[in-house]
């Protein structure tokens, strides 16, 4: 399927680094590739970026700091916190804020600044070329490194199939969450995975069982006994014994994700604009970062 190539207008100045918000031990990470004055070129306006990144991350980090102050979690990264808190039902709130902090950062960090690519292409233009010529950026899939492209095509038959699967999966989620591209840590297989709300794809977080859309799940087991049973299983207890492995958990390595929480896309795309948002997100993927995770030799740190 042929699609129009992305066109990015010239930027008058280089992008600057984002401001670091600090409070207690945890702080909002710096996104070197984006600046609040420019948003995410091709995806989010400055106002949309402010809501989805600046304001939201400041909120979840501040909440995480308040909940972890004076505890062992205070010195841990959000990724470590979500893994450690996943087994304890009483730490659900800590898990949620740690997981959302990590997930949202992962989402933004796997995107490329299209304006920077535009500037690089403009600088590489042969001297003497017409200044009025419109510079165009190729579609996202043309930037996929050959080795990664081969793996994606092996698992999904084509890049277009992968793109459509991301789109249809995200559109099929009635509730908010994330759609992930993950690698099975025990083999080369790549798969699409959904997590709802603050759910996490990391192996240690599978205790939370957040791969179900609770907006469509039956509520016929709302008894106290069922709640206690779920709480014990979430903590790792089954049949009076502690099980260090999450039931049904699969060891996966996340490579890429799209955030489907409404606050990310509502400002720029409106109530019915979720599909347009996802299609534009596809054009901003930093495939070099995806490849570095897919073939990393330090994958144990990513689980």
Automatic annotation (TrEMBL):
<dbReference type="GO" id="GO:0005737">
    <property type="term" value="C:cytoplasm"/>
</dbReference>
<dbReference type="InterPro" id="IPR036324">
    <property type="entry name" value="Mn/Fe_SOD_N_sf"/>
</dbReference>
<dbReference type="GO" id="GO:0046872">
    <property type="term" value="F:metal ion binding"/>
</dbReference>
<comment type="function">
    <text>Component of the mitochondrial ribosome (mitoribosome), a dedicated translation machinery responsible for the synthesis of mitochondrial genome-encoded proteins, including at least some of the essential transmembrane subunits of the mitochondrial respiratory chain. The mitoribosomes are attached to the mitochondrial inner membrane and translation products are cotranslationally integrated into the membrane.</text>
</comment>
<dbReference type="InterPro" id="IPR036314">
    <property type="entry name" value="SOD_C_sf"/>
</dbReference>
<feature type="domain" description="Manganese/iron superoxide dismutase C-terminal">
    <location>
        <begin position="251"/>
        <end position="292"/>
    </location>
</feature>
<feature type="domain" description="Manganese/iron superoxide dismutase C-terminal">
    <location>
        <begin position="147"/>
        <end position="204"/>
    </location>
</feature>
<protein>
    <recommendedName>
        <fullName>Manganese/iron superoxide dismutase C-terminal domain-containing protein</fullName>
    </recommendedName>
</protein>
<dbReference type="Pfam" id="PF02777">
    <property type="entry name" value="Sod_Fe_C"/>
</dbReference>
<dbReference type="GO" id="GO:0004784">
    <property type="term" value="F:superoxide dismutase activity"/>
</dbReference>
<dbReference type="InterPro" id="IPR019832">
    <property type="entry name" value="Mn/Fe_SOD_C"/>
</dbReference>
């Amino acid at each position: 399927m042929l699609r129009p190539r992305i066109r990015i207008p010239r930027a008058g100045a280089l992008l600057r680094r984002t401001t670091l918000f600090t409070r207690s031990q945890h702080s909002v990470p710096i996104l070197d590739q984006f600046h609040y004055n420019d948003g995410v070129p091709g995806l989010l306006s400055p106002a949309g970026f402010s809501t989805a990144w600046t304001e939201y991350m400041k909120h979840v980090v501040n909440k995480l700091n308040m909940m972890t102050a004076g505890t062992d979690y205070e010195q841990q990264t959000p990724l470590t916190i979500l893994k450690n808190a996943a087994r304890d039902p009483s730490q659900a709130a800590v898990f949620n804020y740690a997981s959302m902090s990590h997930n949202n950062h992962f989402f933004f960090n796997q995107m490329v600044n299209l304006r920077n690519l535009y500037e690089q292409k403009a600088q590489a233009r042969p001297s003497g070329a017409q200044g009025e010529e419109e510079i165009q950026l190729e579609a996202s899939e043309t930037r996929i490194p050959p080795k990664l492209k081969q793996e994606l095509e092996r698992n999904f038959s084509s890049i277009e199939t992968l793109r459509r699967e991301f789109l249809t999966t995200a559109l099929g989620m009635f509730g908010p969450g994330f759609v992930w591209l993950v690698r099975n840590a025990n083999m080369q297989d790549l798969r699409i995975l959904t997590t709802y709300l603050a759910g996490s794809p990391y192996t240690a977080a599978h205790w939370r069982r957040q791969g179900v859309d609770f907006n469509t799940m039956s509520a016929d087991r709302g008894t106290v006994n069922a709640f206690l049973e779920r709480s014990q299983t979430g903590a790792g207890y089954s049949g009076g014994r502690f099980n260090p492995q999450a039931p049904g958990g699969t060891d996966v390595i996340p490579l890429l994700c799209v955030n489907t929480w409404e606050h990310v896309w509502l400002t720029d795309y409106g109530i019915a604009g979720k599909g347009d948002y996802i299609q534009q997100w596809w054009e901003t993927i930093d495939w070099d970062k995806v490849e570095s995770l897919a073939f990393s030799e330090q994958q144990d740190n990513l689980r």
